[in-house]
Amino acid sequence: MEITIRPRRLRTDPVRRALVRETRINKSALILPLFIREGKGIQEDIPSLEGQKRYSPDLLPYALETVIKAGIKNILLFGIPLTKDGVGSGAYAENGVVQQAVRAAKKNFPEISVITDVCLCEYTDHGHCGLLKGDTVDNDATLPLLAQTALSHVEAGADIVAPSDMMDGRVNVIRQVLDRAGFTDKAIMSYAVKYASAFYGPFREAAGSAPAFGDRKSYQMDYHNGREAVKEAGLDIAEGADILMVKPALSYLDVVSDLKARFHLPLAAYSVSGEYAMIKAAARAGLIDEAAMVCETAASVFRAGADILITYYALEIAQFIDEGRIG
């Protein structure tokens, strides 16, 4: 039988290409990280993250006007306190920097979904994610403080708390504390799979959270490991996580795909500061088309199986969706 090879006509027209597109992206799946610095009247550039800024809580609503106008309805807040101590007390202070920012955001834009990072590294004078016992992070002693931090965020009005510390058992403790306080409707987005990655450098400068000594390999994951990701995600689900996260994104798309195939919770991927900085640097050097690279990398994350993308490029991606370049 003779077979006639016909042209793939759907490729010739952009409208028809979009009609059969397998991976679709919309603004509701984007989360924009924001850095909040304690004080007043602060709006400053972040040298390590070109195009990103730190805001004080009183100026956060000004920044959110642009976010809302772009169609982004989800933000993830990271706090930078004025003072730090050995127990990270600024993380769970009633009037801490994140707590102030949450109140300001929800007062001015009640429709926005406010997610808060729950960790101690930005608040401890040693820069580690938990309390220390000698030179070692004390996992169990850290758990109550993480739960106290999450509770203070929710009491301020946060919609979702996102523990990023990687302490064993923290999702369980946070869930119990929130439930006992009557916040059974508040969700936990767990950094279930957070690798000890070289891609975090620009963030640590932006948030002032680099460890004063050693590293975080004892509680973050070895990037050689894939099966461990499945184990960690399963444990967090059992403890009460509502959303799973993989961090970083681009170097771990295989992990995103694996978790999507195995579990049925919403799955987020965090395109981290190093990924953002690399694209910015290459674009500045004239080596790439920045917009095209942003669209392609974002699509790859969703194609791998992510339902949610946390990205410093959220505003730009929203614009590209409006322009029909992606989505």
TrEMBL record:
Q: Which residues form a coiled coil?
A: none
Question: Its Enzyme Commission number?
Answer: 4.2.1.24
The alphabetized UniProt keywords are: Heme biosynthesis, Lyase, Magnesium, Metal-binding, Porphyrin biosynthesis, Zinc
Q: Which Gene Ontology terms describe the biological processes this protein takes part in?
A: protoporphyrinogen IX biosynthetic process
Residues bound to Zn(2+): 119, 121, 129
The function of this protein is: Catalyzes an early step in the biosynthesis of tetrapyrroles. Binds two molecules of 5-aminolevulinate per subunit, each at a distinct site, and catalyzes their condensation to form porphobilinogen.
Q: What is this protein called?
A: Delta-aminolevulinic acid dehydratase
Instruction: Give the source species.
Output: Syntrophobotulus glycolicus (strain DSM 8271 / FlGlyR)
For this protein's source organism, the top of the classification is: Bacteria, Bacillati, Bacillota, Clostridia, Eubacteriales
